[in-house]
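User: Second chain of the day. Same drill as before.
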Amino acid sequence: MESYFKINPPADLGRKIISRLQLEEMKYLKRRLILCWFLFIFSALALFWVWRMLTTTWSKSAIGIFLNLFLTDITIVFKYWQNFILAILESLPVIEMAIFLGFLWVFLTSLRVFIKTLKDYKHSRIYLFKMKYS
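Assistant: Same format as last time:
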């Protein structure tokens, strides 16, 4: 009767379970690394495209005229400084600047996540190698 309830697991069962868990973690990290790489590349391309859009709209705006006025006749700027500041703010491409800052944030965040995932992946590979051959 007692022989039914007595289970003798293999001696290396714990090592097999841990190695299987490490392999699953490696698969997860590899998938996450590939996803982060594609997100990083996509955000870099999108950032480049938004930068070109921002520079195009910036060159079409009247910011150059106000900058020229500021550099040539500063007395008029100081005399009408409130109107000057409002005119500059109205001529700025605010929507493009906001889009650019959003894509810059996505780019920097994806870069940070990619680097962290790469470090985790390398650390897991080294740990797995040590566990496998020790």
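The mean pLDDT is 85.

User: Great, on to the next one.
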